[in-house]
Amino acid sequence: MSWPSPSLTALLSMPLTTAFPLLVTGGVVARATWLRVRLAPLRRVSSGWSPELPRPVAELDITSGEEFALVAVDGAVVSGHVRRAARGHARGSGLQVLDLVPANLPVERALDLARHTDLRRHRTDPLVAGRGAGFAVLATRELLTRANVRPGTLDPGALGAVTVRLRQYAERAGLAVVPCPATPRRPACRGRRAWLRGLGVPVPRTVARSAAGWLAVLAAVWAGAWGGSPWGWAALAAYCAAPYLVFAGTPLKPRDLHRAALLRPLLAPWNWWQTLTDEPTPWERRRARREQAARDRYREEYRRGVERFLEPRRPDCPWCGSRSLTVQVTSGDVLQAKPGRFTLERCGDCRHVFQNPRLTPEGMEFYYRDVYDGLGAETAERALAAQRPFHAARAALVAAHATPRTWLDVGTGLGHFGRVARTVLPDTAFDGLDVGSGVRKGARRGWLRHGYRGRFADLAEDLAGRYDVISMHHYLEHTPDPLAELDVAAKTLRPGGHLLVEMPDPDSRLGRRLGRFWLPWMQPQHLHLVPIGNLVQALELRGFRIVARQRRAAHQRYDLTLAAVVALTAFAPPPDRPWAPGPPTARDRLRRAVALAAAGPLLAAARLADRVLVPLVPGASNAYRVLARKAEG
Predict the structure, then answer these.
(1) What is the average pLDDT across 137-164?
(2) Which of 48, 65, 214, 530 is most deeply packed, by most CB within 10 A?
(3) Which residue, among 368, 344, 363, 367, has the nearest Cα to 355 in the 3D structure?
(4) Where are the bilayer-spanning segments (predicted)?
(5) pLDDT tops 80 at residue 62
């Protein structure tokens, strides 16, 4: 039997029963190679030899005066010479946090490490998510104190959450392989679900991706057998050999490598079952109690109705007073799918877009709850961290026109902007202001020099004259009165200082085409969307001179991708979300399963279109930036 050539021409001329197994084989090999490349920066800590017996972390003297201390999973065993070598490695590398990766980590857990950890970014990206092996973390005592973490042992979920938190507080963090046993006598997937949840990794998605690969291999074997092609068995062989390809030449030597590789088609479903049905850890039970308390609170509020959260509709434009209003878009809650319908109207004269009827202050509290903090804090953290390139671009725009000593970021959230911007302007002191509690957390992390909690107007008198730059990145659209916010900025900024404003562009051509699925409409959070001409005019009336405008440069390539996410969420929101209006039904779960099945190809196509096609559309910018300078007098 001849093996067909894998060239593109040959592939296009093959029958499906040959081409599909060939593609699956190539995909398995490519995936394994990618994981191998991700593990390439991993290094081994040489600990030398010592007759000292390993001791459980729980028995260590956690009150010693050492600079570093350990936080580890229950049952972890670390010898004294390994601890000393790890401390030396951390000091020599200038690390505040070092995740210890057991050399014999089981295959499934080692694959998780490769799947979810970008080791190159982990050392250089200030906003990369904390990741590790789920065994032990070495950190400086100063950082542990600042992050409110006590040395000792934790269950897997709690350790995952601590791993993420410590990376948020650390300037420099890394991972290294150590010669420690990976919790011996424990099944490979015990605690895996809790560990992944603690890291903020969606467990169903992780299992679904693994299952999709497994099903593809089985389909390739069947197709090959049906068409008489050897590539079906090649796909199976590649699937079994993948762990060898991933770990060959790395410091990781999984204790179950041969068994896990040779029996992989049989063990994979068993691993999924163990992961999903594992006994809940104490951390998971505490989380479930929080979610149940939130669920009870939400349903009590739903019984009172959500119509009370809207003010009476106004007949005129809040920007120019015109009564020529038309409906721009009507939608539900696009982020959390809480009950309610919201309308954005556009002024026919000045083109200002605003929510009408508008949320009351109580409504704002209700619909913001668990979006950026509380139960939604992990999701918000990941979304804000993904803004790193845009944070850097914002800082670079100002750096091209000024060298500020002090900078106040209004609506800063946790201070992600300040954390990135100081890599562009290292001599600038970044402060943040926000109504949420996250701003103080950002200061504790060291991302902000000072974090001010409260409304800008209430704090403006104390802050007046302190800052060379004030920025408002995607802040004005959330405020009840954008013009009043500009008045406050004009009074607070030093003479000759700069105001940087970034907002969604309500004149976006794709925004009009995508309708309620265009994320920047973002109901009900966005109250006002101001056309760039209106903003420029308002700034000039307040004594500012426009220094720079950016539209295409401010564009974020996510229009179609996030439109697909909004559509999938509207069609089938997560049935178990704590703010659901009622208990999940079988129909809810079925709709969600269908949505998840469609998500992969739909999102892949949308991402490709965002990268390749959207930049070709004239006027497709979904955001704009305006940099203005306050008069000297």
Answers:
(1) 95
(2) 530
(3) 344
(4) 12-34, 206-225
(5) no
* pLDDT tens per residue, range 72-81: 999 888 888 8
Query: Residue 425: is its pLDDT beyond 80?
Result: yes
283 compared with 224, residue with greater pLDDT: 283
pLDDT band, very low/low/confident/very high, at 174 (cuts 50, 70, 90): very high
Domain closes at, from 199, 223, 239: 199
Q: Alpha-carbon distance 351 to 633, whole Å?
A: 33
Residue 80, domain member (yes or no): yes
Query: How much is the pTM?
Result: 0.88
Nearest one of 291, 98, 282 to 194, comparing CA atoms: 282
Indicate the average pLDDT of the chain: 90
228 in the same domain as 210: yes
Whether 345 maps to a domain, the answer reads: no
Q: What angle do CA 566, 571, 576 make, to 5 degrees?
A: 95
Q: Which segments of 200-230 does DSSP mark as H helices, in order?
A: 203-227
Q: What is the spatial distance between Cα 346 and Cα 324, in angstroms, rounded to a whole number?
A: 8
**In this structure, are 508 and 481 located in the same domain?**
yes
Whether residue 542 sits in one domain with residue 415:
yes
Phi, psi dihedral angles at 253 (to 5 degrees): -130, 80
Find residue 353's DSSP bridge partners.
346, 529
Q: Does 524 lie in the same domain as 503?
A: yes
Three-state DSSP at 411 gives: coil
Last residue of a domain, one of 167, 199, 231: 199
Q: Which pLDDT band holds residue 386 (cuts at 50, 70, 90)?
A: confident
Same domain, 511 and 384: yes
How many Cβ atoms are within 10 Å of 631's Cβ, its own excluded? 11
CATH number at 478 reads 3.40.50.150
**Separation of alpha carbons 586 and 392, rounded Å:** 45
Same domain, 491 and 387: yes
Q: Per-residue DSSP letters for 462-486? A: HHTT--SEEEEES-GGGSS-HHHHH
The arithmetic mean of pLDDT across residues 224-253, rounded, is: 90
| Of the candidate ranges 181-190, 413-422, 540-549, the one whose mean pLDDT is the lowest | 181-190
Give the domain range for residue 264.
8-36+203-277
109 plus 175 within the same structural domain: yes
Domain count, the chain: 3
Cα separation, 3 vs 229, in Å, equals 8
Q: How many CA atoms lie within 13 A of 599 on its CB side?
A: 21
pLDDT level of residue 159 (50, 70, 90 thresholds): very high
> C-alpha distances in angstroms, 163 versus 97, 133, 154, 197, 476?
9, 10, 11, 12, 34
